[in-house]
Structure formats: C-alpha cells, structure tokens
Design goal:
Length: 101
C-alpha cells in the first residue's frame, strides 16, 4: 500500500492510496457504471470512497466531516474537487492507454 497525504486549504488533508490493487480499480469501474446511470456525479463519490483512506475535512461550520458518502454534500466544493481530481489521476494512471476515449 502506498498512501500519500494530499494537503488541502486551511490545514485540511486527505490520505490517498496511490497504488490500488487491480481489484480496487475494477470495483471502482463497476460501482461507477452502476451508480452513474441514476446519478452522473456518483463516480467521483465512488472513487473517493475507494481511494481515500482517512481525512481531516471541515464543513463551512468548522465541524469535522465524517468519512462517509452521506457526508460528502457537506464538503466545500473547492476541497471536494481537489480530492476528486487527485483520486482521478490515480485511476487514470492504472489505465494509461484509455485516456481520451
């Protein structure tokens, strides 16, 4: 396992798995396809749930946001976007020949 910390604004952070197993990547693909039919943005949630191992994120009210999908709507969008983008680079690196398809 290769976990690296992504530093975010306001002393927040997310620990992201940089070398997921093939099984994790397959799980991300299957869950994203299944959930994406009803919610096009669900793929980001799936990627984050499978690659982020731990985080320290606070909502607009300053309270810690627990690491569970139901709480993702409380994350400030700029922070969520940074985490999602970083996780997406991990997934894209697993399939370098798939870019641009």
């Amino acid at each position: 396992m290769a976990v690296e910390r992504l530093f975010l604004p306001d002393d927040q952070w997310a620990d992201i798995e940089r070398r997921p197993t093939h099984g994790v990547i397959r799980k991300i693909g299957k869950e994203s396809d299944r959930l994406g039919r009803s919610d096009p943005l669900a793929g980001e949630d799936v990627i984050i749930l499978n690659l982020v191992k731990e985080w320290s994120i606070r909502g607009e009210d300053g309270n810690d946001i627990p690491f569970k999908r139901e709480s993702f709507d409380l994350i400030p969008q700029d922070v969520f976007s940074q985490i999602a983008a970083e996780c997406l680079t991990v997934v894209e690196a697993a399939y370098p020949n798939q870019r641009g398809r």
